[in-house]
Amino acid sequence: MFRLATAHPEDVLSLTAIEMGLPGFGLEALADVTHGGAWHIGVLAAPGIPELLLTDREHEFFGEHAFPSMTATPGAFTETDIEEFARTYSRPDGWRGAIGLYRSMLSEGTAIQALRNSPG
């Protein structure tokens, strides 16, 4: 969305970023588990690892690891929620979007900074 907003500001009335930061503005630090970063970023960004470790284990990943470790409110995600995430991610190429998001965030910080600094 940041790229869209900077490339085509005439098409964007407003932009509110929630849940995720921007590459180049400190988001990369979230991948540094040695300094309190989130483990799931490294897992999802590592080439071949999500497919190897998470395929056919979507329900366990979301229900037993991801959601319990990333939410402050126990039960915030219901079993129905977990089943829907598992169903969606277990489809062919179901992990592709998440994998692409985390891989790109670790490599495009300089480009995002340049967009912020460009005139216009």
Strand-helix topology:
Layout: H1 2-7, H2 39-45, H3 49-54, H4 58-70, H5 79-89, H6 96-105, H7 109-117
How would you portray this structure in words?
With 120 residues, this protein is mostly helical. It has a domain at 26-108. It is built from seven helices and no strands. Helix 2 (39-45) crosses helix 6 (96-105) and helix 4 (58-70) crosses helix 5 (79-89). The longest helix has 13 residues, at 58-70. The protein is globular. The relative contact order is 0.18. The mean pLDDT is 88. InterPro entries: AB_hydrolase_fold.
In brief, what are we looking at here?
The protein is mostly helical and 120 residues long. It is 52% helix and 0% strand.
Spell out the helices and strands N to C.
HHHHHHH
Number of helices: 7
Strand content: under 5%
The residue-averaged pLDDT reads 88
User: What is the CA-CA span between the terminal residues?
Assistant: 17 Å
Helix content: 40-55%
Give the overall shape, derived from the CA principal axes: globular
Question: Compute the gyration radius: what is it?
Answer: 16 Å
Largest sheet: none
Structural class by secondary-structure content: mainly alpha
Number of distinct beta strands: 0
Low-confidence stretches: none
InterPro entries: AB_hydrolase_fold
